[in-house]
Specification:
alpha+beta; 8-stranded mixed β-sheet; 13 helices; 23 strands; globular
Length: 473
């Protein structure tokens, strides 16, 4: 079980319309939906005590929770928008820290075997809504409106063919000949995923979602701010840099976790959404208290020169999943040659506390992706290696599900608040799960009622039961 692993890179119009997915038509359609499970809660929140919320961790989970807190709080009472005050604490600026900042950005609702994951279609819908909100501010955060999953063996061919048969609105089977003709790659065939499945540049997406949160807060007479924090280590002082925006920084100092708890006491609720940082920064008392593992993922960012510069053939600029992934990156606007192509290849799946060295990372990723990106490996140059550590929940009867709900932490050496919640364990499914579960959590927090989560997801507390069973052994 991994412990104490780092996360830094090695180099380093009012309430929007709600939508639902129609799977009966030949194409997936986004249609208006006025049911009670629409993206904005249909019930006004009466005079309620939850008005000031702290969110610890501003990645996919934290920003989704913030957006939905604002969105639900924006419902009108007596024609006056009810504001909410939100503070996000993070060790880095928006889109620059944690596993979210180096995520592959592949949005789709299927397992590697082509099975629809639990809540898959609804999760895809909600994630696409947040992406749509982000594109108002970061229009280029969507890199490709589709992606391709390659069959790894004969059994996987049959599995993916069944996916295309069962979900024709999302998946189209392509034979190995079609793959060769279209992409110039050797394979056993695969499926093209579209109609809501896409490739997202996650750092840009998070910046756009933050900007949407800022705008929404102004619209409802609420507020949202981002506070940079350096967590203490073995008695070191904790730096606390408050920023409403990057133009107005002010610096405060917290001496230790006790002073942080004293500061958090002013909030009506605290949401812990820092991913692996929850354990690494001792925000909770220990890894053994949650059914999770820390998993390190290292990726390689590469640039392929223009064909006339290197003599190589044009490389496919589409995204591929094959156990690992090869996806395009946005063009670097400062690059001398705008015709060059940038890609990210990832990711390793490491449980040991000692990371793979750069040569080992290169060897593993090349062996798994060379057939899909020969030109890139033969003619490209490595720009940097990145590292992210994910908090991966243990597999249960419904697969790997997020850890979400109330979290009563009483340890003196970690965050302790009278009304604390947790939203973590998303791991490699952060992009598909963050929108749906973020809305459910926000609704429960604002109503101060965990049963709101149970209404949507009866098994939401699976992790509590598992934790209790393990503690009794």
């Amino acid at each position: 079980m991994m412990r104490n692993v780092g996360t830094a890179a090695l180099s380093f119009v009012h309430v929007p319309q709600c939508y639902s997915i129609s799977t009966s038509a030949s194409k997936m359609k986004w249609r208006s939906n006025n049911t009670s499970r629409c993206l904005s809660s249909q019930n006004d929140i009466d005079s309620h005590p939850i008005k000031n919320v702290a969110i610890v961790g501003g990645g996919l989970a934290g920003l989704s929770a913030a957006y939905h807190l604002l969105n639900i709080s924006g419902n009108k009472i007596d024609n006056v928008p009810r504001g909410i005050q939100i503070t996000i604490f993070d060790k880095a600026n928006v889109g620059e820290g944690g596993a979210s900042s180096v995520a592959g950005g592949l949005l789709h609702p299927f397992s590697p075997r082509g099975k629809l994951i639990h809540f898959g279609l609804s999760a895809l819908e909600h994630s696409n809504h947040l992406i749509q909100m982000s594109t108002k501010h970061q229009p280029h955060c969507i890199i490709r409106p589709r992606l391709n999953r390659i069959a790894l063996n004969a059994k996987n061919v049959v599995q993916l063919q069944h996916t295309a048969e069962n979900y024709p609105n999302l998946a189209t089977w392509m034979s190995k000949e079609e793959m060769q003709d279209k992409f110039g790659i050797e394979s056993l065939g695969g499926i093209e995923l579209g109609n809501g499945c896409k490739v997202v540049h996650v750092p840009s997406y998070l910046r756009g979602l933050w900007e949407e949160c800022e705008m929404k807060a102004r619209d409802i007479n609420g507020s949202i701010k981002w506070e940079l924090v350096q967590m203490p280590s073995h008695g070191d002082k904790m730096k606390h840099d408050t920023q409403k925006d990057t133009r107005e920084p002010s610096v405060n100092m917290w001496s230790d976790i006790d002073s942080m708890n004293q500061h958090l006491a002013q909030y009506d609720a605290v949401i812990l959404s820092a991913g692996a940082g929850i354990l690494q920064d001792q925000l909770i008392s220990g890894e053994d208290e949650l059914p999770v593992n820390q998993v390190r993922g290292q990726s390689i960012e590469m640039t392929l020169p223009a064909p006339e510069d290197s003599g190589n053939d044009v490389s496919s600029d589409e995204a591929f999943l094959c156990g690992k992934y090869v996806t395009p990156l946005p063009t670097n606007p400062s690059a001398d040659d705008s015709s060059s192509q940038r890609f990210v290849i990832g990711a390793t799946h490491e449980f040991k506390s000692e990371p793979l060295n750069p040569d080992e990372v290169m060897e593993e990723l090349k062996s798994r992706t060379y057939s899909l990106a020969k030109n890139l490996w033969d003619h490209g140059t490595v720009d940097r290696l990145t590292t992210g550590v994910r908090l991966q929940s243990n597999r249960g009867s419904l697969g790997r599900m997020p850890i979400v709900g109330r979290y009563n932490n009483t340890s003196k050496d970690s965050i302790s608040h009278h009304n604390s919640w947790i939203f973590s364990g998303l791991s490699s499914r952060g992009l598909i799960h963050h929108g749906l579960f973020g809305r459910w959590l926000a609704n429960a927090v604002l109503h101060d009622n965990e049963d709101n989560l149970r209404d949507e997801f009866p098994e939401f507390d699976w992790w509590k039961k598992k934790t209790k069973r393990e503690a009794e052994r």
